[in-house]
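Page header: ASSEMBLY MODEL / two components / 685 residues total.
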Amino acid sequence: MGLVEFRELKIKSMKPTVSKHELPLRPANFSSLIEALEYAALGETGMNYFDGRGNLYASVPYQLLARQAKTLARRLLALGLPKGSAVALLAETNPDFVRFFFACQYAGLVPVPLPVSVNLGNHRPYVEHLRALLADCRAEIAMAPTDLLPLVEEAAAPLDRPLVGDAKAFDGVPEADLALVQPKPSDLAYMQYTSGSTRFPRGVMIQQSAVLNNLFGIVNHGVKARPGDRCVSWLPFYHDMGLVGLVLAPLAGQLSVDYLDTRVFAMRPRQWLDLMSKSKASISFGPTFGYDLVARRLRPGEEQRFDLSNWRVAGVGAEMIRSETLERFTRRLAPAGFDPKAFLACYGMAECSLAVSFAPVGEGLRVDTVDGEILSSEGVAVPLLSGSEAGKVHINTYVDCGTPLAGHEIEIRDDQGRALPERQCGILHVRGPSLMSGYFGHPDTTRQVLSEDGWLNTGDLAYRVGKSIFLAGRQKDLIIVNGRNIWPQDLEYIAEQQPEVRSSDSLAFVAPDADGEEQVVLVVQCRESDSGKRAQLVRRLKSRISEELAIECVVDLVPLHTLPRTSSGKLSRSEARRIFIESTSERAQQDNVDLELRRLA
Amino acid sequence: MRNYPEILSGVCELLEPFAGQSGHNIGEDTDLIGELELSSLKIMDLLMEVEDHFDVTIPLNRLPEVRTVGDLAAMIDQLVDRPS
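Prediction written out in full:
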């Protein structure tokens, strides 16, 4: 038997970890990540990794993970790093990442997941991004998958640290004869790079007590875990929802989880549904975009192939929730047994470990339909009674993101910092035990968002009904035209409605024109090269915008891949605005030069 | 057995539907991002077609160095199984 056949046979005989076991479910009531892992290690559940062809290639019961993490921790201790040193982990979806993450816990080191966003031809920008992150977190060591080592080494070369290696290199270090570390509640559990400019990264510091508090909330208040639940995830391990929601939360609830690499999902999104069907999973999460991608990719009649009848929690978050898009997913997959009541809207951010609020589980999406005219003129979300939509031009729908986790409070404030009553739109503030302790190495930025009395300014625009949060957009991106509030998301939504434009292909903002006058700008990535068709798209967009929002708007078509993104992969409106202003002022200068030249001629 | 020129012409064929109406003449030197303006989702579609057509698994770390159709064909050339 050749090596290849042997490997095939090994893969075929490998079994995923079970969903049900004897160990009583402890709902994430632990004081450290180590304590959570060691309880899970008493059972038979664990983590399972699937490749691009849908085959299981690794199965790691929590019991094995705990043993491996302790061994590796003794090797890391042998490196003699100061307690609390940052350990950068290139967060590819694989067992090594999780093993190193937990080894850091036992060794008193702080794991820092870094993005694996390699793509066609992006060598230079990716290396520069990595370098900025390694420098910002002052990583002492960096672990990367073997095939990414050259990129990480190149990124680290001009820095005085970190020491870079693959898993094998660190596994070759002899174990130290030292006691493992017992973390205190105030010790950092990990650091997470999040939204914000790619050029100015911000590392969110999360203490053991913060993440454990949040995990308790996710498992109890959020998904209300039951014995026998099983999770599936394709979310990146460097994303807050991927890491806290689908790596740490299943472990803290002793649930088995099946992983699909994010790139595999992007390439073959239907594999998500294959895996859900095959493993009879009951819990999975994703942004609206993920559900959209699957629904678009389904072939006619293909839904018969799937069995989604066990799916009881289909979490949605991480970006504005579009109920219409999710309804399309339901229409396509109801024949496969998908129950729209499984949709669970949630709201959160890395600065609050992950979750701030969850809608009630098992009730599906609850949508608030409000008068868009009154919302933009007075900032009040006035509900439209059913039947009264007729004749209204401006209708906005918002999804109920539920009530805050226990021990957390929210306030909607106006721009003077005064608390606003129900249904008044303002800036969402959160206070509670899951909040970060700050941005690493950036006390000034921390003070801008986190007050001394513990309130986090989320920067998000929202209103509340009772204690329920309805997200309406990002505060710093709000467009105000002649005293009227315009939500950039609304402009972008109009763009996305056009057949030539996809979601995440457009950004809207206000920017000064060459004369300093404020103008609303919609930048759209466009693959169309025919100038007649481009002009037609611009005309159509302008007329739809003026029709729906009654504003004038500059529409700027740009090539694909030119909209800037943050380190967590979200489109960066502020960066797009900066680039637009720069290019218009360059154009204005050029115009002046042209004028001077003509005068001379 | 497949050799580089055959792989190259196979890649060009796979690329035709992706070039769309842009009317680009696809050849070895065509820039996948710059000229064909493939979106990140289109790129994922293309990679899937390539993996299925040539029965290979494309390693993540090779992507950053791939800019042209020729680069892509050369990468596949190194990945395809050949009886030794």
